[in-house]
Structures are given as C-alpha cells and as structure tokens.
Amino acid sequence: MKKLTILSGAGISAESGIQTFRDGDGLWENHNVTDVASPEGWRKDRALVLEFYNQRRRQLHEVQPNEAHQLLAELEKHFDVQIITQNIDDLHERAGSTNILHIHGELFKSCSCNNKKLVYEQKGDINIGDKAEDGAQLRPFIVWFGEDVPLLHDARKMVQEADILLVIGTSLQVYPAAGLIHDIKDDCLLIVINPNETGFGYGQRAVVMKETATQGMKLLFDKLVNLA
Fold first, then answer.
1. What is the pLDDT of residues 93-140, one digit of tens each?
2. Which residues take part in binding NAD(+) (predicted)?
3. What confidence score (pLDDT) does residue 89 get?
4. 54 known ligand binder
5. Which of 18, 101, 125, 172 qualifies as a FRET site for 107, CA 20 to 30 Å off?
6. Which CATH code for domain 19-62+105-142?
C-alpha cells in the first residue's frame, strides 16, 4: 500500500467546535499565549494554567469528530496512513484512525512536572496538589512554547517516507512542525487543504485546495482512493 502521511492542525478540530489556538488578536480565549502555554506561565501561575486546560478538557468531552476526521479514518482501507497532528484532542482516534502521532501532546494525559516520562491518563481535572508517583505536581501533557518537541524525529521520518503528504487544517505558522513539509521526497505528491492564504511557500508542486477541512475531504476523497 502507498504511504499516505497526514499533517493536521487546528482547522480540522475547529469544525467540531474546538476553538483554534490563536485568534487574530494573538490571544487564546483572552489569555496571552505565554501565560497558559509556556514554562514561564507555569512557573508564574500554576492554578491559571491548570484551570485553562481543565476547561479545554471538559469541552473535549462534549464534542465529536466531524466528517473530515471520519473520511481520513476511511482512507486506512486504501493506504498505509500515518497522521501527524498538531492537535491535542483525541478526535482522530474517536473517528477510527489508528496510527496517530501527537507532536504537541495530548489533552487527555498528564505528566509529572519534573519528569515527562511519567505519563498518566487524565480524563478529569488536574488540581493543585495532584501528584505524580515521584511526588511532583501533575501538569498537562502538552508541549508548550519554548519546550523541545520530542516526537519531531518520528514525524520527520513519516514525512520522508510518504508517497503522498496531505496537509489539512493548518496554516503552517507554528515551528518546528511547519518545517516538516520540506522533508518530503522529490516524487511525493503534496496536497494542502486550507481555506485561508497562509503565506507559506508550497512551491509549484503543491495541489492547494482553498476549502474547509470537511469540504476539502469531500472533494478529495474519491480522487485520493483512485491514486491508491
């Protein structure tokens, strides 16, 4: 089977009702991103950071995968599919996709703030005083701004091996994830589904569809299957 690698971002989850990471004013639900998504913010106000992600986690229980998620899962019948997602939700999993790499972490997991290898399932709130087995405070299992992206090497390998790379729902503004498309093979087919101009130079080889994730997948699905 041909290798189809998918790089997904906030746009696909937005259609399920999950707010995108940054609004046009650079704030995330009225918070400066550094206050809720950086080691500095964690050191400054742990309670604020925990409650911010607790709210995101509660919301995630209330939303469902959309048709774009479901169509991506269906592609596993035709391709060797690997999904690299910048999203911290589990909507790809719930839609039925089976090979997903969360390069920015997972909302339904927590970890020790002293040791990110101590990871736990976390479907409910994290509160001040909730401890990992090493005695350290639990924190969201999220890659914050300024932190290393430990799964980047795995993601790069997936992109390098791809026969087709489908970029969906991301404006490719957050690095280092945005740089992954530069690792594709010379004969890899690059397809981009995004309704907005990104200012990102895809080059002549990219097939760009200015559509939402759902509409783009409806238009693309049969064409992709014919390439399998």
1. 999 999 999 999 999 999 999 999 999 999 999 999 999 999 999 999
2. 9-28, 86-89, 169-171, 194-196, 213
3. 97
4. no
5. 172
6. 3.30.1600.10
Neighbours of 197 (CB within 10 A): 9
List 31, 104, 153, 182, catalytic entry: 104
Known catalytic membership, residue 104: yes
Please, is 147 exposed, middle or buried when counting C-beta atoms within 10 Å of its C-beta (0-12, 13-18, 19+)?
middle
- The response to whether 28 counts as a known ligand-binding position is yes
Which among 220, 218, 219, 60 is positioned nearest to 124, based on CA atoms? 60
Please state the length of the chain. Answer: 228
- Ranges of the chain with pLDDT below 70: 20-29, 197-204
Q: Which two tokens stand for residue 36?
A: 């809720």
CA 52/CA 35 separation, integer angstroms: 10
Q: Nearest to residue 140, comparing CAs of 24, 21, 20, 42?
A: 42
For the chain, the domains span 1-18+65-103+150-228, 19-62+105-142
139 among annotated binding-site residues: no
The C-alpha atoms of residue 95 and residue 123 are separated, in whole angstroms, by 18
CATH class of this structure's domain 1-18+65-103+150-228: alpha beta
Peptide bond into 195 cis (omega under 30): no
Both tokens assigned to 5: 């690698």
